[in-house]
Amino acid sequence: MALNLTWLTFLPLLTAGIVLLIPSRNKGLIKFISVVGTVITFIMATGLARMYMEAEANPEAATGISRSADVMLREVYIPAATNGLSDELRAKVEAVVPKTTEEYKALEAQEGAIAALETDLGAEGFKAWGEATELTLALDAEQATTLRFVELVPWLKPFNINYFMAVDGLSMPLVWLTALLGVLCLVYSWTIDKGTKAYFVLFLFLETGLIGVFCALDFFLFYVFWEVVLLPMYFLIGIWGGPNRIYAAIKFFIYTLVGSVLMLLAMLVMYFWYEPHTFNMLTLMQLGPEIPLNAQLWLFMGIFIAFAIKVPIFPFHTWLPDAHVEAPTAVSVVLAGVLLKMGGYGLFRIAYPMLNDAATHQGIVYMVAILGVINIVYGAFCALAQTDFKKLVAYSSVSHMGYVLLGMAAMSYTGVNGAVLQMFTHGISSAMLFLVVGVIYDRAHHRDLNDFGGIATQMPWYTGIATVGFFASLGLPGLCGFISEALTFVGAWDGEGLINSDGYTGSSIDSQWMVWVSLLGVVLGAAYILWTIQRVYLGKLQDKYKNFKDVSLRELIALVPLGVLCIVVGVFPQWFILDHIQPSLKVMTDMIRSALPVVGAGG
Amino acid sequence: MFLLNTDVNLAEKYERFGSEVIPKVVDSLHWFAPELQLAIFAIAVLLLDLFLPRKMSKHIAWLAIGGLIYAAATTFGLHHEEKKLFLGMIAIDSYSVFFKAFFLLGGIPFVLLSYVSKELENARMGEYYAILLATILGGMLMASANHILMAFMALELLSLGSYVLVGYHKRQNKSSEASLKYIIYGSVASAIMAYGLSILYGLSGSGEIPKILATLTADEGMGFAGFFALLLTFMGLAYKMATIPMHFWSPDVYEGAPTPITAFLSVASKAAGFALAMRLFGSFSLDVAPEAGGIDYSELWPIFLIVIAIVTMTLGNLAALTQTNVKRLFAYSSIAHAGYMMMGVVLLQIQGIEDQAAGFGISSVAYYLLAYLAMNLGAFAVVVLLENKTGSVELEEYAGLGWKAPFLGFSLVIFLFSLVGIPPTGGFMGKFQLIMAAVNSRGALPEGTEFLSAMILVMVAFALLNTAVSVYYYLKIIKTMFFSKIDTNAEKIAVPVLGSVVVALCLLLTIYLFVSASSLITETLHLEIYTGA
User: Fold this and answer.
1) Which burial class, exposed, middle or buried, applies to B354 when counting CB atoms under 10 A from its CB (0-12, 13-18, 19+)?
2) How many domains does chain B divide into?
3) At residue B522, what are phi and psi to the nearest 5 degrees?
4) Among the four A75, A590, B344, B430, which has the fewest Cβ within 10 Å?
């Protein structure tokens, strides 16, 4: 078993295949094999993360798959594009492949130049020219220097669609988080007794889809994984969910599908914009500025809505509370921990870099920032009003994803770092909170906040661990949530206008009232979380809760790693994650900001 | 046509008949072997039925399957070059070979499905299979017809066989009613189409399709007369493809017909309609130089088809939303899918569109038909097998069936997701190509067609919107099967092995069309229609 992204992505699927062959009465074996599969996946993810860190720290020494994408493309994949041609044709093709993006743009601007090449090189030669050109442009993208573990195999040749996988500082933490939550969720799901086999198979299938989304660098491949996530999620909510599960499942499905349909349309328009047509994300990033602003705005809105539904951004958020309330605990954990991040990740990976003229357009900057503020404040207010424990946590997710938007809209180094870190930390803390809800729900069989009280005396260990999660979510200094929220605020605050000469990287939001309003979200967050702690854990213990046992080993295995992570990320953010994601994010931010108008130096 | 040429005197005519016509016909027979073999097998099936005891007649299915395989092997074995047979009646080209293979190989699961269906257990199965083979022959001829007479006859052969098969349960009111409705609609559609074809013949002076198209393009084109003739011809094909405005028959007929026949109608009959439509409505232009201020029929025609596509898919999907009978639901769903496929047909109709973009249109429809064969046939196979057990096709009877028959349930889920167009399935790849071909064509349009270009984008938007709508009713089936009554320890239903094989094959094909699509797409991109050049 080689250590690469393909194995990492498809190992859960392979495990699912093995599990399918086991007769469904051997429940123990099914669970055991599934967990083993996810554990191996997690170990691989950790190994890749280590390799990534080492390569990042010392890029020159990187060998094998750790080499950055530009090196891999130049040394391995571009020569492969012209393989199979006769020597003569090959030399001819290689001679006319543009060496830089500028050269390509000049060629494209020249009326009929590409058509002339087509007749000159013949069908076969022109195809190879297209592939080589596409990859040369991809190589030019700044982001290629931070992407590692590249795998590029032609898949649908007639349409120039490749199986193109790689990760950088943006996706690596999310991949690792997915692998981690995969293990924890399956361990937590050990008690699932209804349709055990189907449940574990679907969960493993889901994990493949999720990891795939974060690794895919071909837009088409990304779309495929994006849709693949839908199927298992629909069943997991629809079969193992609560009383209103059918409504929640179909709502989730239709909302997401409407979004993906918009994304598909935008994706195709971008594909056909350039000659040769391409889905290669890196190439699309290079060519993005070719599209006039007007068209970019349309495309941006299409893609933005697709991701906004997933994030979810107000007013597309209404599926989330329904889905969360109905979903079984482990599914909620994945939903909050990873699925929502697909939206944020998509904005960072696709919408912003590929359409950076639109992304830096003042209207869009304000739209995203204001939506972020609405998410933060509105989500917090909604959470405050809930009496259902799980719904409260769900709305707190809406609120916390607002920080991601705010940081993204700011487009400063600090803001973007904060936003990406917020995705990671929210993945930890919200996953933990849903587990906390699950633990108490399994015992009490209800989630009515007003009906609890005094649990701390009965379940001290549980209360202790839960408190870590709550305070991490609240943003208490020393725990993970604080770092990312603080970075976001700092990043969004520092705005003196859209100036990017002299390496100035202030916020692109040139007014500070949004940060002021967002700070309200922190206050409200403290309110609903402290109030929840008070209602559930403090006070007098009711008689009916007197026989509750403290957390079991299974629950501890799921909860403790997340609790530890909360503290580690809170205390050593730089060492644990920020150092490793910063280089990638800097490259990405620079690229997005390159579209900002330059106001005279020192202006 | 040669034989109608009155300038030649009689003696000369006979001489030419002997020296030119007969050798040509004899030569044609060699290329016509697959069709001949199928016809012989159909007769053999009929004869064998006479001598077999009634109880054994069911097993004639194997002879029918043998015939299909034999003819398919012959089709693949012939070295194909573009040519016309029987003085221009039939065309041999990669396009017709593709569809012949499609009908012959696709016919096998229909036979198997009829074999395992309990519904047909006590019917006279010998005749049934003979008619089924003849109907498949009709489909093959439709796909390779090069002459409007041949096209019309092939369409009638396909229709006549279908009428009988639909009403095969002659003692059941619903089946008879379905058959009658089908005949009435079919006759009207055929009559309209015959009228349209006669005008085409009158306008161009020839019955050969390439010549008609060439005449339509030559000089100033045909303007309104050409448009009118095409419109009428389209009505006949719309009936086969089940697009508006000739779709009314399909829900009742689908519901009343024996389920394997419903499956056959929804796939083979539709495929034959599309095959002929793409050949008949190849590239032509109605107005080469339209008058200033007048109607440009060349632009009106594709816009008319775009509207047909949009309305068909929307109507099919909206009507399917409220269905409670699975067969009716699939009837409306198949109307919607005809609408999707029309998107590819439209591209061929645009005057002055680049060849590559039009070829992409053909390719995407052909690929979609393959995917549609896999997923729709698979879905119907599951419906047949469940009907064997429950005796009902009402959706409410499906509650909890997913747990009782896990393999069928799982397969149906994949087929339904494929019908929605969600990866990793062939249906996704097919729809993706249709949409891609449409978006692609916008770059290949001639100058001055901004409105058409915008309409194409509107059509694509509708297709995507419809995808989202269709989710609701497809998921309704899944919901009923898995979510409504969860009983994980339910006693499992025994499924006949042969039935499972059909389902498994469809399942594999559905997935295969996604994962290894590359070579097949290349294959369909190379399909070429004989132009008589």
Assistant:
1) middle
2) 1
3) -60, -40
4) A75
Q: What global pTM score does this model have?
A: 0.91
Q: What is the mean pLDDT of residues B36-53?
A: 89
> Which residues, 6+ apart, have CB-to-CB distance to B302 below 8 Å?
B346, B349, B350, B452
Q: Residue B507 has what pLDDT?
A: 93
Question: Could you identify the residue written with the tokens 């729809």?
Answer: B431
In a domain, B495, yes or no: yes
DSSP element (H, E) containing B91:
strand B90-92
Q: Is the pLDDT of residue A497 over 50?
A: no
What pLDDT is attached to residue B287?
61
Using pLDDT thresholds of 50, 70 and 90, give the confidence band for residue A191: confident
Q: What is the largest CA-CA distance in chain B?
A: 84
State which H helix or E strand residue A323 sits in: helix A319-326
> Best interface-test mutation with B: which of A114, A220, A224 has the largest number of B CBs within 10 A?
A224
Nearest residue to B344 via CA among B96, B116, B524, B148: B524
Which residues from B are below 8 Å from A159, CB to CB?
Answer: 436, 521
Cβ separation of B443 and A272 shorter than 8 Å? yes
Chain-centroid distance, C-alpha A448 = 31
Q: What is the mean pLDDT of residues A246-252?
A: 90
Does the pLDDT at position A501 exceed 50? no
Per-residue confidence (pLDDT) for residue A342, from 0 to 100 = 93
Residue B120 within a domain: no
Kind plus residue range of the DSSP H or E element containing A167: strand A161-167
Whole-number pLDDT of residue B423: 86
pLDDT number for residue B178: 87
Between A and B, how many CB-CB pairs are < 8 A? 80
Residue B137: the pLDDT is 93
**Contact status, residue B60 vs residue B123, Cβ threshold 8 Å:** no
- The answer to whether B467 faces chain A, any CB pair under 8 Å, is yes
Residue B390 touches chain A, beta carbons under 8 Å:
no
Place of tokens 């931010």: A589
CB contact under 8 A, B468 and A264: no
Distance CA B165, CA B260 (A): 10
Please determine, for residue B79, whether its predicted confidence score (pLDDT) is greater than 80. no
Q: Cβ of B483 under 8 Å from any chain A Cβ?
A: yes
Query: What CA–CA distance (Å, rounded) separates B136 from B438?
Result: 30
d(CA A9, CA A164): 13
Over residues B449-458, the pLDDT tens digits come to 788 888 888 9
Return the amino acid letter for B90: I
Give the Cα separation of B232 and B197 in Å (integer).
Answer: 8
The full DSSP string for B212-244 is: HHHHHHSTT--HHHHHHHHHHHHHHHHHHHT-T
Residue B504 located in a structural domain: yes
Mean pLDDT (whole number) for A452-468: 88
Joined tokens for residue B158: 């396909």
Best mutation target among A236, A250, A279 (most B Cβ atoms within 10 Å) is A250
Q: How many whole angstroms separate alpha carbon B449 and alpha carbon B442?
A: 9
A111/B361: higher pLDDT = B361
Q: Is A253 on the interface with B (CB under 8 A)?
A: yes
Whether residue B49 is contained in a domain is answered as no
For every residue of A201-262, DSSP letters joined together read: HHHHHHHHHHHHHHHB-BHHHHHHHHHHHHHHHHHHHHHHS-TTHHHHHHHHHHHHHHHHHH
Crossing angle, helix A245-273 and helix B450-478, to 10 degrees? 150
- Model confidence pLDDT, tens digit, residues A547-564: 888 888 888 899 999 999
Closest CA to A409 of A464, A370, A465: A370
Its domain, for residue B521, covers 299-526
